[in-house]
Design brief:
Blueprint (H helix, E strand, L loop, with lengths): L1 H31 L21 E3 L5 E2 L6 E6 L10 E6 L7 E2 L2 E2 L5 E4 L4 E2 L5
Antiparallel strand pairs: 1-2, 1-3, 3-4, 4-7, 5-6, 7-8
């Protein structure tokens, strides 16, 4: 039960980061009439982006891949001037055991898109 609470707390950090990135995407869209799949265009430091991903630790801080509990990516349907995005937080290590009401919160991974749709719904 304790480990379940720890995983739930870590999931909350991942959700907070997805919401922060989505807000940055909306600000970017108001200035550029497009979304972006590039974290540096959303004011993240290039040194924090590793292989096109951000990694966060148990406290929601940016970290390196080896100590990350979630890897976060941005995908768009168009590389030219995307009108949509999907943010994905993929659990790593022990966090892959995260569940809510018996349903996995890691397979499929946590996602948030430009329409505000959140999956898996039970985990939000």
């Amino acid at each position: 039960a304790y480990q379940e609470q720890v995983r739930k707390s870590r999931r909350a950090q991942a959700k907070a980061m997805l919401l922060d990135i989505a807000a940055r995407e909306e600000r970017y869209f108001t200035e550029n009439n497009c979304y972006t799949a590039d974290f540096t265009e959303l004011d993240f430091k290039a040194s924090d982006v590793q292989g096109g991903k951000l990694y966060i630790d148990a406290h929601g801080h940016l970290t390196n891949a080896s100590s990350g509990i979630y890897a976060i990516t941005i995908t768009t349907s168009d590389n030219n001037c995307p009108k949509d995005f999907t943010l994905t937080a993929t659990a790593l290590g022990d966090q892959t055991k995260d569940k809510e009401a018996g349903k996995s919160c890691t397979n499929p991974p946590l996602t948030l898109n430009s329409l505000g749709e959140k999956d898996p719904a039970e985990c939000w």
